[in-house]
User: Fold Membrane protein from Neomesorhizobium albiziae.
Amino acid sequence: MRKIVAIRRVLFDALGHFNDDDGWSMASHLAISALMALFPFLIFATTLASFLGAQAFSETAVHLVFDTWPDQIAEPIAREVVNVLTVQRGDLLTFGVVLAAFFASNGIEALRTSLNRAYRVTETRSIIYRRVQSLAFVVLATIAFVAISVLLVFAPLLARLAEAQFDWIEPYMGTITLWRFVIASTVIVLGLIAVHFWLPAGKRRFVDIVPGIIFTLAAWLAGSTIFATYLDNFSNYVTTYAGLASIMIAVVFLYIMSLIFIVGGEFNAAIKRYLDARARVGA
Assistant:
């Protein structure tokens, strides 16, 4: 009985605060910010990757970003991303690429604002610190993508060496799509840990952010599956929005994912508040 009461209190606290603190509007802000930050980030990352010699970066980046999206949503956007990324750019570290990094960091700032509200904390760090941290997230994400891109270049050689040493691994080496999905999923998990741990104001232990991350991952999987099923069977986006259908589908999809992300932070905050209250009364 106590567990049922605890779950109910956490749910009412999390969802009530989400509704009272404009969570629906924040999800819209986060979705649009994410979409607007996507292309600048990939332009900056591709330019830096080309400078570092990772010529296959654009294909890797598309897989890392879109492999976990439903095909109906990912394919139209991925095509446009490839068209943008295959344009030759020689302006590394010029004003245009630096500006792209700045716009990409706006997506990180949207994540920060959403999580600050979800965790019910007041931001006390300076705007310079926050912006530098956001740019650092962009650069670190770029370096991680480049590293994965370079590793994937050597993947066939590593696979042959592994097969020569371990016969039992051979049946698993041909499933490239599976490995790409695993890598993309790993990037998402590590990204969620990083943003929950470092972006919001205040300090949290790892155990404090785990429930919200688990909820986010599970709800993202369920939400994307349901939305993809809806697009396959019931959607009339193409007839309603014509040439804008793909972008509208992406916006709606990102809005759903943003809602889930913010609620994940709300759950972490609600659980922490409940445990703190229990500790104060000695229950």
Observations:
- The radius of gyration is 21 Å.
